[in-house]
Amino acid sequence: MLGSTADAEDVLQESWLRWAARNEDGDQDEVRDPRAYLVRVVTRQSLNRLRTLQRQRETYVGPWLPEPLVTGPDVLEDVELAESVSFAMLLVLETLSPLERAAFVLREVFGFEYAEIADATDRSPAAVRQLVARARNHVQARRPRFERPAEIEEITTRFFTAAGTGDIQQLLDLMAPDVVLLSDGGGKKRAALRPLHGPDKVARWLLGVAVKTPLTDVRWVVANGNLSVLLYTEDGLDSVGTLYAVDGKITEIYLVRNPDKLRDLDVPRQISAR
């Protein structure tokens, strides 16, 4: 919903405090269904936060990427869940309005009924159906397609090995002609200020970064429903890299370098569809 673990935790904490305050005050009006009440509170808190975040991200330095969400390996076995938290999908969701995003996530990811979503968003069921339909059409037109774990692991290994050794030809061979790289430094680490398009630009930028900040270790992790790599330099964790490939060729590269988004990555977070 929010693209940020910290923001999600803030929303949940605020929602819990509201629930706890009602219980302490003995105010049980309209809380005959605690689940519906909490869904309503969390959704409306999320909508308020989304509107604030959208304004903040308009002035973000360079491309904004979602915070890497490290999960257990079981997420890879659930194709729909893996796709719903992928970098590519979260960026598509960023192009929706807050209401469209909330309605789409509640319906398509968590399976809530239209009446439940209507209650949570203070809209009519008919209006919610329109929101979901509009968001679904928008997402379907931009829905990413990518290789499954076995293929992407081999491709990712070869790619970052080539970047570390300076093998530009290997890098070029692994990328599709329309490859795009998005790097998020948040103004705090070196990153391309605009998306890079094409194998040549991507390869040369990556090699430039590798020369200035040589890697000392590469570790596998499941992040955002995809096999990703934690890239370390002598100063510690430098970035998280995630690749998407189609027909054996890399089409999208996401590199999160903003140190604010690299905290607590060693602890897997368990997520579920419901």
From TrEMBL:
Residues 157-236 form the SnoaL-like domain. Signal peptide: none annotated. Pfam families: Sigma70_r2, Sigma70_r4_2, SnoaL_2. Residues 88-138 form the RNA polymerase sigma factor 70 region 4 type domain. One of its GO terms (biological process) is DNA-templated transcription initiation. It comes from the Bacteria. Keywords: Sigma factor, Transcription, Transcription regulation. NCBIfam families: PRK09636.1, sigma70-ECF. Interacts transiently with the RNA polymerase catalytic core formed by RpoA, RpoB, RpoC and RpoZ (2 alpha, 1 beta, 1 beta' and 1 omega subunit) to form the RNA polymerase holoenzyme that can initiate transcription. This is Sigma-70 family RNA polymerase sigma factor. It comes from Nocardioides pocheonensis. The lineage of its organism: Bacteria, Bacillati, Actinomycetota, Actinomycetes, Propionibacteriales.
